[in-house]
Design brief:
- The structure is a single chain.
- The protein contains 1 helix and 5 strands; from the N terminus they run αβββββ.
- It is of the alpha+beta class and about 70 residues long.
Length: about 70
């Protein structure tokens, strides 16, 4: 019984770093031209990945990313 409790704690402690690295965050924004007019249906993609989304009719978008400092390409 004692060994199984220690084994559970060891597995738990080793899994904490993996859980923190795999967290995603949501980035929201608006795609606009130089004059501030919204660009409807613009595609926003995380650089170097296939992770992409499309802006709505008002130029607003939301995308989930896993890296700390992503580069977004419009």
């Amino acid at each position: 019984m004692q060994k199984s409790i220690y084994l559970v704690w060891i597995i738990f402690l080793f899994s904490i770093p993996f859980a923190t690295f795999s967290q995603t965050r949501n980035i929201t924004g608006k795609v606009a031209d130089e004059k501030g007019n919204p660009i409807p249906l613009a595609q926003v993609q995380e650089k170097g990945t296939n992770n992409a989304t499309t802006a709505n009719d008002n130029g607003n978008f939301s995308i989930s990313v896993k890296v700390k400092n992503p580069v977004l390409v419009v």
